[in-house]
From TrEMBL, chains A, B, C, D:
Keyword Transferase: no
Stated role: Catalyzes the dehydration of methylthioribulose-1-phosphate (MTRu-1-P) into 2,3-diketo-5-methylthiopentyl-1-phosphate (DK-MTP-1-P).
Sorted UniProt keywords: Amino-acid biosynthesis, Cytoplasm, Lyase, Metal-binding, Methionine biosynthesis, Zinc
Top-rank EC class of the record's enzyme: lyase
Associated pathway: Amino-acid biosynthesis; L-methionine biosynthesis via salvage pathway; L-methionine from S-methyl-5-thio-alpha-D-ribose 1-phosphate: step 2/6
Protein name: Methylthioribulose-1-phosphate dehydratase
Organism (species): Coniochaeta ligniaria NRRL 30616
Organismal lineage: Eukaryota, Fungi, Dikarya, Ascomycota, Pezizomycotina
Length: 248, 248, 248, 248
């Protein structure tokens, strides 16, 4: 029965999607050397990539599955989890688990992705070197339209809107990031991502499609921002909107 | 019948080509996070990638198809379209549609590609930082030969010719770019591409082969130009032509 | 019988793993133009990629195999080897052989990888230009957790730990690196890698999984370090640990 | 019969190798937008990729084949060729043909590769900006060992040897490069490559293996050289050889 949870002929089943997504992320340089991870929530079931696996070689049978409701009702320390199924391969649960759960419980996200993208790390380093800033801000770039306006808000950001991604400081133990991630979610109710200084980024979305495309758009903006810095170009600008003359 | 429009065993059929091209473009970083797009015109039929799809996962059944003649005869606002077929997946039409149509109607193009290439965006930012220039100009690079001399002109540009790509300012709504794109086409009758500041580039050609190879050559030149800027190398130079001594 | 040593239907057999790993390394730019190599130890048997082969095209039948015990007991010069099996293709043994053996004998490694990664080379050049430093040092980057604490030590490095990789000078003949590699192993008993100035890096691990993921993490850090240098960011910083307020 | 020249089930047949190599080169960014090319000589038969084809889509049936002896005996202008077989697809012969033939006739090469690699172009631009230098020189980098010592010489370059690649100025018409390429071959009898300013590089070797691996090693060195320039590191250095203390 527990095997059933990760056995499906459907390539879009979470147990098949996580390995195919992680292989794609490995090729993008987001989950190098077993870093980073991915989790999908299907109603009450949460599928999580395990710790310490080569992401391009992951199999459905490597996944952990837990019940969100059971997890929340159980009066457990944040370090304790009750899993509906664990891999026989002996792989450990991901240290990202409480952070993924934060996105599912506080934002009702359907998918959460954690990358160690070098562009994300470099952006946090550039902000730190600036004045220890706690926000990545960029505006007037078309790709910003790739982000939703916010939790329970319809529509996407506009070209002239400023995308703001909070930055939290890294902790020695990944689970200890949870309270700071949750604080950032509270302070930035509309954000779909949180940068972790010198570590990487957490990105989520209503569903796999939105989490993945928002993660791609964000990595695009991080890389662009690093190249802009090399070329002495500012991340924030004032631009007069261009108004079409045609009326229709 | 509408299904027939996108059902063919021929890999070179537009309905099969657009998904395979978009998957290739995704790997090149041109259509990250559902950005960018592609359209092919087969005589009167126009095949268009939909909005908001993961480009590496697109299927023929996701495509929109419209009749160019019907579209032009219909007295419709530019925002209204009559489609011969729409995807059942509920995907929205691409906001790039009127821009693709401009290439088909004003240039009789057979294919138009829109990328969010970071190199294209960086080139527009470097020009803006320079003096708000409205043209990207580069000469004396072999790859310039990859471009036709112009609309209804035979032959390609030469090594010593200056490639000139107009830059238009971005608008809040992509459709609003149309009039500015069309103006740029009028002012630059021989260009095969228009850069959009802080957004990306539109590239077209007589057929898929020419649109795709011109788009590749242009992205090559944009990346080269950005690297040249990092290294303090000018984009425009005066070079004495080298004349062969042999007579034949 | 000698054929049997490299004939197996199991993709995780060393004779099948080395070619698939080397093809992956080629795509990562680690073993360009026949540079670099890889060796796996299975108990007493050592499988070694040959010299001068295109790494993305290697076949199991191209491999050399030797017995570690026989090799050690034989009173041979370091240049002489007794192979249990050699390729019929006439490919020469790898000049890296004595260096791979050093990792197997001095560290009981299960796998050793040698790359010519440009990031590794650039890091050694930056250190040389600094003050001829003999160590690459970086701290306070999450990816550092990708490394074990050291030979026969359990657990991994922590986020605040400083990763130290010794650098040895390159020699005209690769075999001559062996004594310097072994000296570095003696001086840095806990290191899993040694950089070779203007050449590349040797990385090992208890097994293939650990050697490969440590090599990935190290290349990630080398590339990050080069980008940090371009952006004027220091590799070593003093950071106050962030302590979680929650008690559990 | 002419079809037979390019019809073989053997993947290592030149007619099958050229398409598979060109697809690989396209993914390396060497033959973007139909630029660059490749030719293989099998005894008297010369197989040549045609002009204007998308390199990742090339087929064996697209190739031209000519007889080297017939070509040389025929008293033809360098622009005239007698082909044993031409593609039915109507693709034009490559303008690189006389340059490939120069490598086959003057060096008895078995394969010649022409890339538009951006790293090659940037290296020629950096030399031009320096003082219009006509040579790329680099030493004390391990990858230099990837090159043969020279035409009809045995062995490879050593770590401390200086790799010298001549640079010729680009001409308006690619065929016109031939006399300058041949002059460079005469002045640099041991070189396996010639850089073309603002254009790319020609690389050859005794056989496909050597041409391809030397081209990879050279591109590796060009990219490394560009990165070194960004980081203020010199291409030429004086280094005291490291001598092993062990005697064997």
């Amino acid at each position: 029965m527990s095997a059933d949870l990760v056995t499906s002929p459907d390539p879009s089943h979470p147990a098949n999607l996580i390995p195919s997504l992680c292989a794609k992320f490995w090729h993008l340089g987001w989950v190098t050397g077993t870093g980073g991870g991915c989790s999908i929530r299907d109603d009450d079931l949460v599928y999580i990539a395990p710790s310490g696996v080569q992401k391009e070689l992951m199999k459905a049978s490597d996944l952990y599955v837990l019940s969100l409701a059971a997890q929340q009702s159980a009066s457990l320390s944040r370090r304790q989890r009750v899993y509906l199924r664990a891999p026989e391969s002996g792989l450990k649960p991901s240290q990202c688990t409480p952070l993924f759960l934060a996105a599912f419980t506080k934002r009702r996200a359907g998918c959460c992705i954690h990358t160690h993208s070098q562009w994300a790390v470099l952006v946090t380093l550039l902000l730190e070197a600036g004045s220890g800033e706690k926000e990545f801000r960029i505006n007037n770039i078309e790709q910003i339209k790739g982000f939703g306006r916010g939790f329970e808000k319809s529509g996407n950001l506009g070209y002239h809107d400023t995308l703001v991604i909070p930055v939290i400081e890294n902790t020695a133990h990944e689970e200890d990031l949870t309270e700071f991630l949750e604080e950032a979610m509270d302070r930035y109710p509309d954000t779909y991502a949180v940068l972790v200084r010198r570590h990487g980024v957490y990105v989520w979305g209503e569903n796999v499609h939105k989490a993945k495309t928002q993660c791609e758009s964000l990595d695009y903006l991080f890389q662009l921002a690093v190249e802009m810095k090399k070329l002495g170009l500012p991340w924030i600008t004032q631009i007069e909107p261009v108004v079409p003359t045609r009326t229709e």
